Amino acid sequence: MKKIPTLLVVAFATLLFALPQIARAQVDPDAPPADPGADVPFDGGISILIATAVGYGITKMKKEKETKEVE
Questions:
Q1: Average pLDDT, the chain
Q2: Which one of 2, 9, 14, 69 has the fewest CB atoms closer than 10 angstroms to its CB?
Q3: Three-state DSSP class for 23?
Q4: What is the torsional sign of CA 57, 63, 67, 69?
Q5: How far apart are CA 14 and CA 20, in angstroms?
Q6: What is d(CA 66, CA 26) in angstroms, rounded to the nearest whole number?
């Protein structure tokens, strides 16, 4: 297994904790109030989560198949 460089881990952790503070939305005081019935997009990351789960499942199935062939 390859070792992950420490700098990469630190950079990822910094981005993980700093991004919500950087990306926080500011409210415009002159804007009219939002419509409470407005639709909200559902696909904020669900598709990425599903794709990752499918990829993980395929990887696990391949490893399990390899171990059965060896035995």
A1: 79
A2: 2
A3: coil
A4: positive
A5: 11
A6: 52
Predicted local confidence at residue 11, as pLDDT: 86
Q: What is the pLDDT of residue 2?
A: 65
pTM of the predicted protein model:
0.40
Please state, in angstroms and rounded to a whole number, the distance separating the CA atoms of residues 47 and 13.
Answer: 23
Dihedral in degrees, nearest 10, Cα atoms 52, 24, 29, 40: 10
| In the block, residue with structure tokens 């992950």 | 4
Question: How far apart, in Å, are the Cα atoms of 27 and each of 34, 36, 38, 49?
Answer: 11, 16, 17, 29
Helix-strand-coil percent breakdown of the chain, rounded to 5? Answer: 60, 0, 40
